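Format notes (please read before filing issues)

Several people have asked whether sequences and structure tokens are stored in separate files. They are not. Every record keeps both together, in the order shown below: the sequence lines, then the token lines. Line labels are part of the format and must not be stripped during preprocessing.
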Amino acid sequence: MHDIKKILFVTDLTSNAAHAYQYALTMAERFGAAIVVMHVMEGTASLNEEALGKWIGKRRLEAMKDKAKEEARDALIGKKREHEIMQEALEKFCTEVGQVCADDSKVTSDAIVITEGRVVDGIIDTCKKQDCDMIVMAHPVRRVIDEPLFGATTRGVLRKSIKPVLLVPPEQ
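Then the structure lines:
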């Protein structure tokens, strides 16, 4: 049997995630493990500059890049604030859901991690960097007839993770 000392809990701050967090807390308490809580703010995909330059021209592309850099500089203060707001929301999420699950719980939150970019890569990278032994995440169950059983994030995490992944369906 493998020791589970640290659990990565991935949240999108939905009620499904709150339900999954209760499972993460229960497992952490049973194994004496710490929990790393993480949220990924999905970034926009970057365009292939060479292909884009062919379509709109190199000068226009450079002007657009300069404008984007200027806007990025201006947005840094706003981004920092966005991270602070997300950090506060995650802390509140952990506190409120944790109290619902087990008021007398001995589980410690090892870290709260907020990343930006590709969700699957963020989850896998955080799992490695934080040395987590397993991943717990909510899984919005879908009817196979209507939609694929797994969404892109779930499929990507299952494909790339070398650690066990627990998918928690929504509460009925």
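For reference, the curators noted about this record: The first helix runs from residue 15 to 31. The beta strands are 6-10, 34-42, 109-117, 134-138, 165-168.
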